[in-house]
Amino acid sequence: MPGRSDRLHSTNSAGDRGRGSIPDEDVEIIEISEKHGPLYNAIPCMPLPLAVVLCMLNIVVPGMGTFFSSWACLCGCKTKLGKPAKAFGLNLLSALLQMLSFVLIVGWVWSIIWGMNFLQIATQSDHEPVKPYYVRRQSSVVE
């Protein structure tokens, strides 16, 4: 079909035809952010050495590192909740649940994941802003 290939390619601002290039006015920027539950938000931002020790403790004795991290909430470590008493209670609850569900192996896996979250939160810097993901949307309909 003559002319069909001309419609399939778009031109950029320089006038070049390129695969996947779209004009700037068709770009829509979407920001994506993660939303966590209250148990995750109660994890304190600890110093890295403490986070490593508690992670290892969570691997060896499920829930024990989470138990000690709950006390870190009362010792000045910040959480996303902002309320130390509530964070303390939620961490105690998750430590208890990890210890009780250890028999079903679920608690051990949960405890290991929680220990990895300790490390992840400890390595995140509050000074560096989180870079948002940008998604470029393009219609498959050619005008």
Structure description:
The structure is a single chain. The protein has 143 residues and is mostly helical. Helices cover 48% and strands 6% of the residues. The chain is built from six helices and four strands; from the N terminus they run αβββαααααβ. It has helices spanning 4-8, 38-41, 48-60, 64-74, 84-100, 106-123; strands at 10-11, 17-18, 31-32, 133-134. Helix 3 runs antiparallel to helix 6 and helix 5 (84-100) runs antiparallel to helix 6. One of its GO terms (cellular component) is membrane. The chain crosses the membrane at residues 48-75, 87-110.
Please specify the SSE layout and strand pairing.
Elements: H1 4-8, E1 10-11, E2 17-18, E3 31-32, H2 38-41, H3 48-60, H4 64-74, H5 84-100, H6 106-123, E4 133-134
Antiparallel strand pairs: 1-2, 3-4
Helix pairs in contact: 3-4, 3-6, 4-5, 5-6
Keywords: Membrane, Transmembrane, Transmembrane helix
InterPro entries: SPEC3/Stum
Subcellular location: Membrane
Molecular shape: elongated
Structural class from helices and strands? mainly alpha
Residues in β-strands, percent: 5-15%
Fraction of helical residues: 40-55%
With strands numbered from the N-terminus, the spatial order across the biggest sheet is 1-2
**Count of runs of 4 or more consecutive helical residues:** 6
State the total count of DSSP E strands.
4
Give me the strand/helix succession: HEEEHHHHHE
List unreliable stretches of 5+ residues: 1-17
Radius of gyration computed on alpha carbons: 24 Å
First-to-last CA distance: 17 Å
What is the residue-mean pLDDT, rounded to a whole number?
79
How would you sum up the major sheet? 2 strands, antiparallel
